[in-house]
Amino acid sequence: MAPPPPSSASVTQPVIAAAGSAPPDNQTQPLAVVTEKLPWRHTFISLKVPNFRIFAMGHFIAVIAIWMQRIAQDWLVLQLSGSVTAVGFTVALQFMPSLVLGPWGGMIADRFAKRKILILCQSVAAILSAALAVLALTGVIMVWHVYVIAFVLGLVTVLDQPARQVFVNELVGPKYLRNAISVNSTTFQLGGLIGPAIAGVLLTAVGAGWAFAANALACCSTVTMLLLLRKDQLYVSAPTPKSKGMLREGLRYALSKPTIYWPWLMAGFIAVFAMSLPVLLAAFADHVYQVGAGGYGLLNALVALGALSGAVASTRRRQLRLRSVVFCAGMYGLMLCLAAVAPSMVWFGAVMVLSGFWCLMFLTGSNQLVQVSSNMAIRGRVMSLYIMVLIGGQALGGPMLGWIAEHVNPHAALLVSGGVPALAALSVGAILARKGGLQLRMDLKGRRPLRIVSRHARA
């Protein structure tokens, strides 16, 4: 591999010290990243990079269309089959390839040009979305058509997601990597706020077909944006040569660093139990509140509104702590539990906003922690393992939660969805506190009545 850009040493070296060679009592200490207070004008500072501006513009358009397709797809399956379990099965088909083939996608991302991989994937996605649009607009679409196209889109995701995650570093370099990840999350959630609202209108007015057509056009726009990038301004490193045991090497590397495997573990609990929220929202919209497609789009938009706030808040983080990532996962689970016992749709919607906030605080924090803890030569494989858990876990959780919502009730399904991650976060937090010698200290005279302190530091 070619030497990394000159500024990368300032990022990777403190991370290695914090995550690898530090004694157990320092494993939950903050990484040496941004320590000064960030001015508000620098909240989205990574957008000053011309290539990233172009990429973010195309990404924003694509995300709106992706959300439109996701909402339209789930609602279409629900209407065609009348089964929430069928909606969960669609989710499983779309995410199962990442669970099974995810590590190979990361290996390909390490070995080949990320930009070319993304152009290929977006071109195939455009063809698949166009096929779905034609089937829906001609009125011949059946549930099995959606199943097949969802599965093939899942195969595309196996290659697209690891390459997309690592490509952000090639766009901005290590200096703005954390901010760029947060900007991407903000873009995704802003699209998630607009996309479901548009999808709800389209589903009510003209049907699902036009949402699929919009996604096909958006994929074409993404390919155009990728072709417009200035290749001479990319932070491109030489591809990793093929060698025996590349996948095992990535797994060993990930398991050797607490700042990778603990977020990985929490991402697993969140993915299996709490990332299939659209499946449960479909059940609440159709069976609990009887608000139809428009209400389903509204509930998803409320989640996205909270997530957008969380994504913006994540750009203001001064320090990146492992324990704060676990805390955010626990708060997300707690919010879902509160939503399960909400007395009305108004309260349910309010808690959905808070759920979206804490979900994004966890997702951006864990993504940043895993990326900055990984050497560039192996980052594709490490991120593919992370994505395998995060996306592939939904393949298991979607059908399970859909079955509970249909055969027990949606409230019980949402309680399971939040309760398991909350208990997992509590357990992991206790383990980290014990390893780090942390304890909760009360100081009624100070500005912070409750503080987490280290027994070793006090000694």
Question: Please, could you describe this protein's structure?
Answer:
The chain is mainly α. It has a single domain (46-458), classed as Up-down Bundle (Growth Hormone, Chain: A), CATH 1.20.1250. The protein has 16 helices and two strands. The chain has helices at residues 9-21, 50-81, 84-111, 114-137, 143-172, 177-205, 209-228, 246-255, 258-274, 277-288, 292-314, 322-340, 345-372, 379-407, 410-436, 455-458; strands at residues 438-442, 450-454. Strands 1-2 form a two-stranded antiparallel sheet. A hairpin with a 7-residue loop joins strand 1 (438-442) and strand 2 (450-454). The radius of gyration is 22 Å and the shape is globular. Mean pLDDT is 78; it is low at 1-36.
CATH superfamily: MFS general substrate transporter like domains
| Rg measurement, Å | 22 Å
Q: Which parts are unreliable, with pLDDT below 50 for 5 consecutive residues or more?
A: 1-36
Helix- and strand-based class?
mainly alpha
Global morphology: globular
Mean of pLDDT: 78
Q: What helical percentage do the residues reach?
A: over 70%
In the CATH hierarchy, what is the class?
Mainly Alpha
CATH topology grouping: Growth Hormone, Chain: A
Taking the sheet with the most strands, its summary is: 2 strands, antiparallel
Total number of distinct structural domains: 1
N to C succession of SSEs: HHHHHHHHHHHHHHHEEH
Q: What's the arrangement of strands in the largest beta sheet? A: 1-2
What is the helix tally? 16
Q: What is the level-2 CATH architecture name?
A: Up-down Bundle
Keywords: Cell membrane, Membrane, Transmembrane, Transmembrane helix, Transport
Main location: membrane
Transmembrane segments: 51-69, 117-136, 142-159, 180-203, 209-229, 261-285, 291-312, 324-341, 347-364, 385-405, 411-433
Organism: Pseudarthrobacter niigatensis
